[in-house]
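Why should sequence recovery work at all? Because a backbone constrains its sequence more than one might expect. Tight turns favour small or flexible residues, buried strands favour hydrophobic ones, and helices have their own preferences. The token representation captures these environments compactly. In the example below, the structure is given first.
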């Protein structure tokens, strides 16, 4: 099965419903999600995120980002598994590390 634009659009639509905890904004509108890739067989998806705070030198900002990050990553995975993806990877856009 070849993945089409419709599959990618479904991913973006689902991500647009994933809210950032404590804020009235979703992960797409907030700029956290940078890009997505769906495997050619449509069973796997990778979501590339950027959790850099507005002030990288701020220790408290880093703590908040870390706490929010784990919750957001889990919400992204749950949302996309709900679409039927067997494997959901959330990847740090800057480092390439899986979160």
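From this structural description, the recovered sequence reads:
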């Amino acid at each position: 099965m070849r993945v089409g634009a419709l599959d990618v659009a479904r991913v973006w639509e689902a991500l647009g419903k994933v809210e950032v905890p404590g804020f009235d904004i979703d992960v797409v509108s907030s700029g956290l999600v940078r890009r997505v890739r769906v495997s050619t067989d449509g069973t796997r998806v990778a979501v590339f995120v950027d959790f850099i705070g507005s002030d990288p030198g701020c220790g408290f900002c880093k703590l908040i980002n870390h706490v929010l990050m784990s919750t957001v990553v889990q919400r992204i995975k749950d949302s996309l598994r709900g679409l039927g993806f067997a494997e959901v990877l959330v990847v740090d856009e800057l480092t390439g590390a899986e979160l």
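A few observations help interpret the result. The chain is about 35% helix and 20% strand.
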